[in-house]
Amino acid sequence: MAALLALIVITVTPAHAEPRIVGGVVVDNPDEAPWMVALTLSSGYQFCGGALVGSKLVATAAHCVYGRAPGSISVVGGRLDLRTDGGSTSVVAKYQVVEGYSTPSRGKDIALLTLAEPMPYAPLPVAATAGVYAGGNVGVVYGWGRQAENDTNKSPLLHKASIPIMADEQCAAAYARFDAQAMFCAGYPEGGVDSCVDDSGGPFVVDGRLAGIVSWGIGCARPNTPGVYTRVMTYLT
User: Fold this and answer.
1) Does residue 47 register a pLDDT over 90?
2) Where in the sequence is the signal peptide annotated (predicted)?
3) For 158, which of 3, 27, 57, 217 could close a Cys bridge (C-beta 3.0–4.6 Å)?
4) What is the pLDDT, as a whole number, of residue 237?
C-alpha cells in the first residue's frame, strides 16, 4: 500500500495556482488506464486528475485540493468519457499533503486522498528506482484538460501524450525555481506536446509506474518551456 511521507492535513484557503493534453490522442481502451480518476465538484465539474495507488487511495497534486473541504471533492473512476455516468464515484473522506507545501513552483506538490468507498480498479504501482527520471526516458501523461493553451473548452474524453523527460540541467536553465529533489521536467525543445489546464494532478507514467504528477509550468506546449511534474518517488513509497 502506498504511503506519503511527512504529512499534515491542510484546511486553509489555497493560493491561486494556474495548472498546466496538447498534441495527444484519445484513450479508447478502458483497460489501458484503469487507475485513472477525475476529481470533480458536487456539480460534476472536473477540475483535476489523479491516479489510484490503492483501492481507497488517490495520488494527485496538492494544489488541486489545498484548502478544499474533503467532502466537497468527488473522485470518479472507470469513466473515459465524462459525459457518461459509468464507472464508480466516491467522496473524499480525508486527504494529506506534504508538510511545508505552499505553491506548485516551490515543490512538494502532491496529496494523498483517502476515499470513503473503495474503487474496484487495479491501482497504479509507484516508481521504485530513480532511473525512471533519466533524461530521454519517455513517459505518458493522462488528462481531461484543454488541448491548447488558449482553449476555452476542455475535452470530456480522456487523452494521453508521450513526452520525453528532460535532463535536470536543462530544466534548471528553463526555470530558476527548479528543485531536482521535488520536481522533474518533460517536454520537446520545439514544444507542441504538453499537459495543460485541468490536467493538473494527473499521472505521468513511465514503464507502467507512477513517476510524476502534473504540477506547473508556463503556458502549454511552448518551445523550450517544458511541463514540470512532481517527482513522486521523493514523497510516495
Assistant:
1) yes
2) 1-17
3) 27
4) 81
Residues across the chain: 237
Q: What percentage of the chain carries pLDDT values higher than 70? A: 92
Q: Where are the domains of the chain?
A: 7-17+34-115, 130-234
Same fold, 7-17+34-115 and 130-234: yes
- In the Cβ-directed half-sphere of 21, how many Cα atoms lie within 13 Å? 27
What residues are annotated to the active site? Answer: 63, 109, 200
| 8 Å CB contact between 99 and 7 | yes
Task: Work out whether the CA dihedral 234, 101, 198, 157 comes out positive or negative.
Answer: positive
Distance CA(145)–CA(115), nearest Å, equals 23
**Range 7-17+34-115: architecture per CATH:** Beta Barrel (2.40)
Model pLDDT, residue 12: 30
What superfamily does domain 130-234 belong to in CATH? Trypsin-like serine proteases (2.40.10.10)
